[in-house]
Specification:
- The protein has 131 residues and is an alpha+beta fold.
- Helices cover 57% and strands 12% of the residues.
- It has six helices and two strands; from the N terminus they run ααββαααα.
- β1 and β2 form a beta hairpin.
- α1 runs antiparallel to α2.
């Protein structure tokens, strides 16, 4: 059976939603979180949790396998290449985060801010890249 979000179950049949919620909440591979989730326009709060689905476990296994492959290659890569790769990776991550938050930024702006140690004048994005 394909995994369905609790939201979809709720809109299909609100009575079976509570049963599905309880089953998932008490499942052996459920991780309980230290906060509650408040539904918009509802009075009830629910404790936060997530379930490890088969898809998530397969993805975790794939990530682990690729990570192990990378570790075997790492000693053969020059240090400058690793530094450059991490620099580009950080730029991509900051650019993606900014896009999600609606902040317009270019790779050049982010790179310039990363290269400034203690700027004497205002450098846009310096505070973001030097957290």
């Amino acid at each position: 059976m394909k995994y369905q979000d609790l939201k979809k179950i709720y809109y299909k049949d609100s009575k079976s939603h509570e049963k599905a919620y309880q089953l998932r909440y008490s499942a052996p591979f459920t991780e309980h979180l230290n906060f509650t989730v408040h539904q918009y326009n509802y009075d009830s709060n629910y404790p936060g949790f997530y379930c490890y689905t088969q898809e998530i476990v397969c993805l975790l296994d794939e990530i682990y396998s690729k990570c192990m492959s990378l570790y075997t290659l790492l000693p053969n890569i020059p240090e400058a290449g690793i530094i450059q790769y991490l620099h580009n990776l950080l730029i991509q991550e900051i650019k993606s985060s900014n896009a999600i938050e609606g902040v317009r930024s270019t790779r050049r702006e982010i790179s310039n801010a990363m290269n400034q140690r203690n700027p004497s004048k205002y450098v846009r994005l310096w505070g973001i890249v030097n957290k």
